[in-house]
Write a structure and sequence with these properties.
- It comes from Schaalia odontolytica.
- It holds the Pfam family SocA_Panacea.
- This is DUF4065 domain-containing protein.
- A hairpin with a 2-residue loop joins strand 2 and strand 3.
- Helix content is 52%, strand content 9%.
- The strands form two sheets. The protein has a three-stranded antiparallel beta sheet. Strands 1-4 form a two-stranded antiparallel ribbon.
- The chain is mainly alpha-helical.
- The chain has one domain.
- It is globular.
Length: 149
Amino acid sequence: MAQSIVDVATYILERTGTVTTMKLQKLAFYSQAQHLAQYGSSLFPEDFEAWRGGPVAPELYALHRGMFLIRPGELVSGGSSALTDAERALIDSVCSALGDMTGAELSERTHLESPWLDAREGLAPSVPSNAVITQEAMRSYYQEHPVFA
């Protein structure tokens, strides 16, 4: 398991180059979802919350707060060397499958999926929430509805 979500985010940035912070959050979310579905265990220990714009990991958000774009090397506390080859391959697969989507498109996708919807317990999409999206909800949903085919 990666030491933190920042390790995964650092690797995503190395692979994708500059992206919006929304896209980085969603690619990290789907990497966690795929790992949970495929292996039954988490890729990193941090949880996501069901924010208005889709799933957000507060620990990662704290590092890019106020930024729209984030570039490789800007997450100073992360290190992709903490990842195994299998973890890198999984993240590569997620980035290959979803990397052409914008952050807004990825956010819209999460708004249609049970983990985000269920965590919000019927709240309108415009209402703020910091409800946790459980890893069990992610594992269960994405085993039945794969992140990518």
